[in-house]
Amino acid sequence: MQVRSATAADTGAIAALHRDAFGPWEGDVIADLVAKLLTDKSALPLLSLLAEEEGRVVGHALFSRVEPGAKNPGVAARILSPLGVASRHQRRGIGEALVRTGLTRLQNDRVGLIFVLGNPDYYSRFGFVAATGLGLDPPHPLPEDWRDAWMVLFMDAGLKDRISTGTVLCSRVLGQAHYWQE
Ligand SMILES: CC(C)(COP(=O)(O)OP(=O)(O)OC[C@H]1O[C@@H](n2cnc3c(N)ncnc32)[C@H](O)[C@@H]1OP(=O)(O)O)[C@@H](O)C(=O)NCCC(=O)NCCS
């Protein structure tokens, strides 16, 4: 299995991957989200990573730009959304490889904060911690049972003491309220 940057030629395969990974209905929503994010100028810079096995796309991770609150100018931040692994290839470390490759690349790009809305049991292994309790609020109020799913990773441990509270603003596409509701 190899992880590489996605290109425009991969767009169709990425949509098919997410339809399979997330299943009916949610898969269509996620495939549509990715297609829109890939052409959303306010989401730049993007990091779009593919996992490939024997020439087939088996996973995809997309990191896009966010603003981590008005009081944190100069702190580069991204959000991981979505992350998907082909249904027949899940639980083999592909998701983990995509996340770890992304984190390494973003560390090299001097990104300070990475956000995610996802399963805390999964993302805590990479160092993500609950963000709401730290005063880094999501772009829209979340349903109560999603509160712990809004997480942040401090790429530089010292940043935790320097960061100011505020609302995280996503790109034009990902900032739409319906992506933050059940
Ligand atoms: C969630 C997902 C990205 C994880 O990728 P993966 O390659 O399957 O997972 P990894 O091999 O990196 O890690 C496996 C571990 O992740 C955890 N895990 C996997 N899927 C999980 C899920 N749906 N919920 C909670 N934990 C999960 C388990 O702890 C698992 O370990 P185990 O097999 O020993 O129990 C992948 O399963 C997937 O695409 N699922 C469907 C889409 C989805 O829910 N995406 C998440 C967006 S936040």
In a few lines, what is going on in this structure?
This protein is α+β, with helices and mostly antiparallel strands. The chain contains five helices and nine strands; from the N terminus they run E-H-H-E-E-E-H-E-H-E-E-E-H-E. Helix 1 (about 10-20) runs antiparallel to helix 2 (about 25-35).
Would you spell out the secondary-structure blueprint of this structure?
Elements: E1 2-5, H1 11-22, H2 26-37, E2 47-53, E3 56-66, E4 77-85, H3 94-108, E5 113-117, H4 120-123, E6 129-130, E7 136-137, E8 150-154, H5 159-162, E9 166-167
Parallel strand pairs: 4-5, 7-9
Antiparallel strand pairs: 1-2, 2-3, 3-4, 5-8, 6-8
Helix pairs in contact: 1-2
The structure holds coenzyme A.
Structure description:
This protein has five helices and nine strands; from the N terminus they run βααβββαβαβββαβ. By secondary structure, it is an alpha+beta fold. The protein has a seven-stranded mixed beta sheet, with helices on both faces. α3 links the parallel β4 and β5. It is globular and about 45 Å long. It starts with a strand and ends in a 15-residue tail after the last strand. The chain binds coenzyme A. The site of coenzyme A has 17 residues, from α1, β4, α3 and α4.
